[in-house]
From TrEMBL:
Residues 1-11 have a biased composition (Polar residues). It comes from the Eukaryota. This is F-box domain-containing protein. Gene3D superfamilies: Ribonuclease Inhibitor (3.80.10.10).
Amino acid sequence: LHSMDGSSVSGESAMDDDHAHPDHNASRFPVEVCENIIDMLYSLTVVDRVEDSRALHRCALVCRAWRVRSQRNLFYSVVLHDLPALQKFSAVLDNAPHLCEYVYEVTLTGRTLYTTASPLSLLPVALYGKLPKLQEVTINRVREDDKSYPRTSESDTMKPLQYLPLHPRFAVYFSAFTTVSRLHIFDITFGHFSDMARMINSLPALRTLHCAGVRCVALGPLPFNMRLRADGSHAPARPFAPNLQELYLYGVDIQCVRRLVSACGPRLRELSVAVPFFHDIEMVLRGDTTTESTVGVDLSLCSTLERLDIFLGPELVTEGQSLDKLKAMLDSWDSEVPRPRIHLVAFHGAHFTRKEFADLLSTVGRVLEELSHESSPPPSADGEVGKQGRKWRIWVELCDWEVWRDWWCTHVQKCFPALVKSNRLRLTFDPPPYDHFKWKDSDAMPTTPTTTT
């Protein structure tokens, strides 16, 4: 395995060395205290995970009492930067088979994913049968001009290809990961939509799919098991990704979003999209698109959808028909779930001042209140609610400092007056975890609100 600075870390010495010796001058804290501290070395971001790995390597060498806990954390989430790292990781598992049980997450990242030395195609071959508890796979490309990510090997200098090179039988090999339930794909370009679809469909236990910045060079024909028949049901074949229930799509072309939502809609429990919808002007649209919706995203098949997250971008009210497409998407959603939830989130806080996002919420609020107006027809005798009587619960998710809580409460209530009266509005409030969650006027101080709640 390679660290972010390109230095090679000896896998066997830090991972499975029985000669790690105790330091007689070490602290006499109970080992459970040390283990709790070691357990804190886990982060969500890839860069932080690499830093955590460095620390865990060192912890594994301190003493035998620390070794097992450090190994469990070190191998829980493995980050592979290139083909040599994959090969070394495979060799470590061969030499120490007990480590196979520790691996739950594997991340492929770096600049080599788009080269002939890409580790992705060989991943399922090199690790075949070695990861019985693998739950999550992340594929995250690092762009060539990203200076924050140091070059880790000579293969980093290879000329990149236009899109992700996949072996023709990659999906067959990838299907061997029968325990993977979560797939994350970030900043990746596929040759055709069908390549992405085959990757997704190959994982038999896939439950959660997260795509951000995913592109296709060409849309191409709609895959057979995604096609709808004249009666609105899907073609008589094994359903596409039959266990997929959570779908998160950001920076993905609207044509691809439509296809994925349509194919997975009857089984979806959670859906997250960014609006305005992304239109990839460089994607070649030749192919069978005649049966696809031409406006917005159709949620009519999402009858089991419990939660819809909408990430609001600043261009929503300035880009032509974007607001109409948002309204059409919501209008098509007639969930059978009682009181489904809509979560509204800034995409991202760094794109807005607080006042700008409050104004955008006011605009979106008018759309939501029109579609779920209190004057809608009452429920029928059997408790069913008509299309015009939607009973959505609205959650506004905000990241800001505590001093701004009253300011936000006042402004958000003004954006959804009818929903406030019917007690169907909630506000969640957390401090900004990263810089891109901070508002453009992050350093400002709030004015005194007229009312507080």
